[in-house]
Amino acid sequence: MEEQQERRNVGEIELEGGQPSRNSGQTGLDPEEHRIDVVISPRVKIWIGSIEKAEARTQSQWPRIPKVPHILRGTQDFKKLYEPRVISIGPYHHGKPHLHPGEMIKPLCARTFLADRNQDIEVLYKNIKSNIEAVRNCYDWSSTNEYDDEALAWMMLLDGCFLLQFLRRTDDMISPSTVDMSDVLRNHQICFVEHYLFMLENQLPFGVLKLIFEEANFHGALTMEETTKIFITPNGTQLEPEDKKPSHLLNLLRSALLGRQPEKKGKSSHKKSSSFQEGKGGLCCRWKKGKQRGIWQSFRHIKELKAAGIYLKPSRTCFLRDISFKSYFFGYLKLPPITIDDFTKTKFLNMVAYEMCPDAPDDYAVTSYVCFLYDFIDDADDVKELRSKHILHNLLGSDEDVAHIFNEIGNGLVDPEIYGHAKARIQKHYNKRVNTWIAEALHGHFRSPWTFMALIAAVLILILTGVQTYYAHRGNYIIYIYASSIVIGICFFLVRHFCD
Fold first, then answer.
1. What is the mean pLDDT of residues 367-395?
2. Quick check: 400 pLDDT over 70?
3. d(CA 289, CA 412)
4. Better-scored residue on pLDDT, 30 or 47
5. Beta bridge partners of 21
6. Angstrom distance (rounded) from CA 486 to CA 479
7. CB neighbours of residue 342 within 10 Å
8. How does residue 436 score in pLDDT terms, banded at 50, 70 and 90?
9. Alpha-carbon torsion (446, 449, 451, 457), positive or negative
10. pLDDT band per the 50, 70, 90 thresholds, residue 42
11. Which residues contact 378 (CB under 8 A, 6 or more apart)?
12. Do 472 and 479 contact (CB within 8 A), yes or no?
């Protein structure tokens, strides 16, 4: 107590009219003499400026176009899957030596694009230049920092004119000679460019395209939204109307493949998305990567599902969200039809990379679909089964290649478990041994539909004979006819089911 009182007396300074306390025994100094002037260095000013710029970038007028996350940059064949090899769009790969021939094509396409309306290119340039801050905020600052406003605006103008001219090739209302690009690009280059436009780091803000297209004012032609939708879905698939405007072509492709997003039910859907962000998901296909948190599944591929009495059927639509499973006496797994070609892997990986970015939609729908197929496709036999049910259309030529593609795409992905409810019902059906025994008996003894039809016919004859004998004895032929009709209907349903 004495030591504490002593320290209190020593440290106590009472200012009375600017004078020190008598107990202190010290001569007080003016507080202004204790003040130290801190000079902010230029380096600290740069740090402060970076914080202010970061706050401004979060309030961007147009949605951001992120780079591929660093976690994917160490993967094999990164440049082949995520970087363009013919022509670049935007600042991320602009100026690379191997893309220089593509830069020579852009002025020719811009001239052709504006030839219909004799549009003054200076007007388009001024419109883009007036929105240059919004353009900068769309991209990573490390890529736009090396370009001044004039250079970046000119890049957006040339890239936008080239991109819109390329998209107008699919407009049936335009004469083919107007958008003929065979004089600047060969057929194989056009095919590559068409798919490179869906790379994450090869995108242009939709706002820039809208500025150029609306200013060009093409009378009698389709709107920009209609032109892009035709380019995205050349097979005539109807796009579901989106509540939000698309950010870029890759975002529009993703929306076209997924269809309309289901309405969120209060807090439950929010918990699903937040749980994935907090790391509560597990690796795709737990039997391949070891047991993780979440649903443990003992089935490994489609062949095992078939052995357990689970049958595949194509969904009514081609939207990736159209996945369902119903279990009665047999199980029915419905999957949306999909076409696999040489660029399927690139498109899916870029959409998965886009969903990993903080500026992308938080539903992880494409990632969930990839993980779902990854769980069921193990080898060529699984692909063959999907082809036989008209769920998968193989344009690669080899079922082994298709299985290899899905094994590569899904390898190492974290499953958001959006389709966890379907997997849980499949696992519940799979765990019922009775279903497995019946399925094994049907597949083992009735491989041919004619064998099964013969059995049904024999059973039908026995049942009808017994019913006829019973009701003939009682003299009630009406009930006999009614019962016979029911039995025949049931037998017809079973024959039709197993002969599909």
1. 92
2. yes
3. 9
4. 47
5. none
6. 11
7. 12
8. low
9. positive
10. confident
11. 300, 301, 302, 403, 407
12. no
The pLDDT score that the predictor gives to residue 292 is 40
pLDDT at 268 over 50: no
Chain length of the chain: 500
Q: What's the pLDDT score for residue 290? A: 38
Per-chain mean pLDDT for the chain: 76
pLDDT given at position 404:
92
The whole-angstrom separation of Cα 236 and Cα 229 is 9
The lowest-confidence range among 29-38, 410-419, 444-453 is 444-453
Angle, in degrees to the nearest 10, between helices 206-216 and 121-130? 150
* Cβ burial, residue 96 (10 Å; 0-12/13-18/19+): middle
For CA atoms 428, 430, 433, 436, give the dihedral sign. Answer: positive
Q: Residue for token digits 């062949």?
A: 303
Query: Are 140 and 67 in contact, with CB atoms under 8 Å apart?
Result: yes
- Tokens representing 168 are 């107008």
